[in-house]
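Fold it.
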Amino acid sequence: MPHKLTAQASRVAVAAGSFYPGSVANLSRTVSGLLASARSGERPGLSAIIVPHAGYVYSGSVAARAFARVPNAKNRFHRCVIVGPSHFVAFNGIAAPSHISFATPLGELPVDVDAVQALVSEARVVINDAAHEQDHAIEVELPFLQAIFGTVPIVPLLFGLTSARAVAAAIAEVWNDKTLLVVSSDLSHYEDYEAARHRDRRTAEAIEDFDERAIGPADACGHLGIRGALIEAGRRGLAIQRIALCNSGDTAGDKHSVVGYGAWDFA
């Protein structure tokens, strides 16, 4: 039987100073600049986004273009669900933290403990702090949320060995009209520039066709999150729109071994 959640202290920032600036001033200036340069324009009816989670120098501009499209964030949404892959800890299922908040240099975002407890009670997720301790997939999205919301309760979920259907079921439990869904995922990894462009274009087409079965682990590290979102968004009759598609060879890296990045929104 799922155990009752015992809330713990704040989850400390581990990606500050590496994936994104570690000081308050530099981080605030960086995120503000990325959002200002995005020129995306808000998309009415937007309820979910897919964004990358690499270092800001590589994928920050792509992520910013998606976050900049969130309409009237503070008044429209009362919560944010963030779904991403576990990079360092192997486990079965979907992991939520016991922490009461997640910290960045810009402050703390509270965890919606009641929502986490409901997911645990429904056996949709397990409590696994070890999975969250060193992972960046959720953390790198938080400064963008802090920039557009100020503060907002979050439901942070990392998936391990599980299925797209299980991810979709967990998403369905907590994604409502007042909840923004953020799916954190990069695309292809460590192929040469042209091979990555080809694979990422194919993945983008699959995403836009809601062909979730065509997306695998070689196509996106967060493929189960993308697939789960596509399943649930398709069930709700939402439309998806591409915002950006590139790779690290287009931003701050060389073209010999690149990582792909894409951004989409659902409305």
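The mean pLDDT is 96.
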